[in-house]
Write a structure and sequence with these properties.
The radius of gyration is 24 Å and the shape is elongated. It has 224 residues and is an alpha+beta fold. The chain is built from 5 helices and 12 strands. Helix 2 runs antiparallel to helix 3 and helix 4 packs antiparallel against helix 5. The protein has 2 domains: 91 residues; 92 residues, no CATH class.
Length: 224
């Protein structure tokens, strides 16, 4: 066999081997068998079932009907949180190229034994708009309010200016805001400098707290 023929045979064998290889290099989902329901004791960290240790959830003290939840990667880095959740609230995170949502299904305060949280994890694609999309829709809603006035620090601004201010605060907050509910409570409810409540004067003259108004609109978005 000549050298040229030998090289051609070797290349053909290599190509055939690559073509015959199983799709081992294809992206493997970080979470399988969704939805996943799990119970996590307070002040503990638990591996998410079906994650092969790639995702863990930490739950802090169950206090006053809420709890701080943090989602961690295998190496201990934070994927999302810590976020204060009440039953029915959710938070998003991304890992392994996939987007997921953690929902706090319920809290258990016991006189004997350990308090714990029940969490349900689903694919973000199956749970409607993402938290970021919800926030974007809320900001767009404020900006599109015809003849409405956004009031902060006692001064009146157009709805468009109000929307721009909320976006600026959201972007300035960086990774601190993970959910639309957080956005409403920490960005759109009051001034960070003075604590004074934002207000919206609707087209019919009705004056409403901005936070309460946007909570109502958020409920509508999440109910779609």
């Amino acid at each position: 066999m000549t050298v040229a023929v030998w090289l051609l045979a070797l290349l053909a064998w290599g190509c055939a081997r690559e073509e015959g290889q199983p799709a081992a290099e294809a992206a493997v989902p970080a979470l399988r068998s969704l939805p996943v329901e799990m119970t996590v004791k307070q002040r503990s960290t638990t591996e998410v079932p079906g994650s092969d240790g790639r995702v863990r959830v930490t739950v802090e003290d169950v206090t006053r009907g809420q709890v701080l939840v943090t989602v961690l990667a295998e190496d201990g880095s934070v994927l999302s949180g810590p976020t204060s959740l009440c039953p029915g609230d959710n938070m998003g995170f991304e890992v392994g190229g996939g987007a997921y949502v953690v929902k706090l299904e319920g809290l258990e305060n016991t006189l004997l034994g350990e308090d714990h949280a029940t969490l349900v994890i689903t694919s973000a694609a199956e749970t409607g708009p993402s938290e970021k999309e919800k926030i974007e829709r809320l900001i767009a809603l404020v900006g599109s309010m015809q003849d409405a006035v956004f009031i902060r620090h006692g001064a009146e601004y157009s709805a468009e200016d109000g929307a721009e201010h909320l976006r600026w605060k959201w972007e300035a907050a960086g990774d601190r805001i993970h959910t639309a509910q957080q956005f409403v409570e920490e960005i759109a409810t009051r001034s960070s400098a003075t604590g004074e409540l934002y207000q919206i004067r609707l087209a019919d003259g009705t004056l409403v707290p901005a936070g309460e108004y946007l909570k109502g609109r958020l409920a509508e978005i999440e109910g779609e």
